[in-house]
């Protein structure tokens, strides 16, 4: 078999050298010269020795086809089980918390600007039912696409991507905690 491979490589290289000898590329070494399409139909038939008889199969030397760009890989199927969606490394917890933090941060700043109450006063003066209601509605609205098997990445295009939403949610979580901490330390509302 080793002799067969050596013979094939010798025959192919000699065919390639002869096929590529055009007036334009005679000065180039054989290893650099372009491969001609005329040698693409060159067939090599090789047989093994007596004790290693295998049926002879014709092989053809063909040009390597140009590789197209990487094809888009289909996104892996997302599990629609609620336990997988709400798992610690699942797709829903950070997104839901980020969405709640974005709404909470903007609402806290709006109420501070309108009424002058800090975050702790807002929670103490009837803010808990608003918080629970908003959390329930946003959680259900966020879970419905996940339960249907729609991934967030499939709908993210342009400026508003799924990564941008994650980072905005992370910053809103940090902002809400920083707002509450700053108001606690200063003893009053920020605005």
From TrEMBL:
Region span, Disordered: 46-80
Domain of life: Eukaryota
Keyword Transmembrane applies: yes
Official protein name in the record: Early light-induced protein 1, chloroplastic-like
UniProt xrefs under SUPFAM superfamilies: Chlorophyll a-b binding protein
The keyword Transmembrane is annotated on this UniProt entry: yes
GO cellular component entries: chloroplast; membrane
Record's keyword terms, sorted: Membrane, Transmembrane, Transmembrane helix
Composition bias, Pro residues: 65-75
Subcellular location: Membrane
Topological category with respect to the lipid bilayer: Multi-pass membrane protein
């Amino acid at each position: 078999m080793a002799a067969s491979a050596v013979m094939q490589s010798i025959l192919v290289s000699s065919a390639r050298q002869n096929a590529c000898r055009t007036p334009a590329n005679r000065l180039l070494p054989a290893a650099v010269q372009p491969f001609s399409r005329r040698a693409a139909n060159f067939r090599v038939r090789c047989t093994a020795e007596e004790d290693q008889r295998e049926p002879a199969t014709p092989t053809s030397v063909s040009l390597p086809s140009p590789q197209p760009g990487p094809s888009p890989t289909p996104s892996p199927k997302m599990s629609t089980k609620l336990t997988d969606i709400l798992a610690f490394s699942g797709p829903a917890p950070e997104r839901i918390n980020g969405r709640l933090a974005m709404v909470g941060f903007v609402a806290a700043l709006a109420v501070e600007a309108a009424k002058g109450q800090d975050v702790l006063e807002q929670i103490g003066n009837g803010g808990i039912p608003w918080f629970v209601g908003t959390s329930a509605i946003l959680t259900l609205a966020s879970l419905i696409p996940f339960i249907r098997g729609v991934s967030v990445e499939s709908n993210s295009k342009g400026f508003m991507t799924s990564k941008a939403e994650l980072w905005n949610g992370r910053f809103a979580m940090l902002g809400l905690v920083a707002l509450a901490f700053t108001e606690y330390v200063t003893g009053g509302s920020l605005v």
